[in-house]
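worker-3 :: picked L-tryptophan--pyruvate aminotransferase 1-like
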Amino acid sequence: MVVGFEKAVSATKSVVTSAKKAPTTLSSDRVINFARGDPTMYESYWRQMGEKCTVVISGHNLMSYFSNAGHFCWFLMPELDRAIRRLHCVVGNAVVDDDRYIVVGNGSTQLFQAVLYALSSSYDPDTEPLSVVAAAPFYSSYPEETEFLRSGLYKWAGDAYSFDKDGTYIEVVTSPNNPDGAIREAVVNRDGGKLIHDLAYYWPQYTPITGKADNDIMLFTFSKATGHAGSRIGWAIVKDIEVATKMVKFMELSSIGVSKESQLRAAKILEVISDDCQNSAPDKEENFFEYGQRLMSDRWEKLREVVKRNGVFSLPKYPQDYCNFIGKYTDPSPAFAWLKSKDGLNCDNLLRELKIVTRGGTNFGVDSNYTRISMLSPDEEFNLLLERLSAIQGTIINGNN
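worker-3 :: tokens ->
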């Protein structure tokens, strides 16, 4: 084990030495962080929109806790409810019929906690906590989010592929998956299972929209749909009113609802997107999703070319599919690149030697020869990433193994 570690360190140092010797135009020695999923790449688009998304709020507005006291989700603003349903209808990525219930949250993270509570609260507290699983590689925050409250109702039970316990369980299905971009379905498929579908990336800029998702519980987030992470808005589409009501109770006790200012901003932006998508004028400019799909596709093409040239890493291959929204066959362009070292080296450590911070595979329940790189950074940082990856010489690693 020590020998293998020394070999990896030796190989990594050789790569770094080679990168420093290679003729590059590295403009800075600063560390660039690609471990985060901060969607700042969309800022230029929204800057071009000018005042179209501006919301003005007077000092006497929005003072009550309540948005609709008679509604089961009493803090959900009707404007946001309508905007969410309309956008999903326009994009065609989720069923939002009148018998579906919308629950708004402070980002999808809070909604995930609310769902765990809702699905587990009806079980006998004297029995063993419900197991929560997800198929590896799974989103790195699921284990911590599940265990954070140290609830006696549920517990993290790891990789769904290896889960073999009988009885009720909760499986989280992320599709497209974070980190590897794969389209996912449930793995365990046994009696007593409860499913949570995390569809944060089921939008046209990341993957072809092949149909309307119609799952019992579906989580979406404003941050990945439009790039507005700072507003902290997420929403769940729920079939069962009892589950939705329990989620609202969790939200009530944890934060007494969700900011009305954030909800109004989200509603305005979602309405602007829907308007642009439905604009059939001959001189119309590309809508937000067309812009995002073009930008993401271009970034993936550049990254694949760099990875192909350096010979050190590999990337997943995704099947092309027909996107109902775009109206043609498109390639998936996930929000994250799932990078693998071809020679079994610690991929995260190797890139840190080049001052590139990523999130290593062990955080996602797999080996350290994988790492996740965000594709959502500003152009300057993304171009610097390509520059540094281009400096790595694959022959150096091969010569040290």
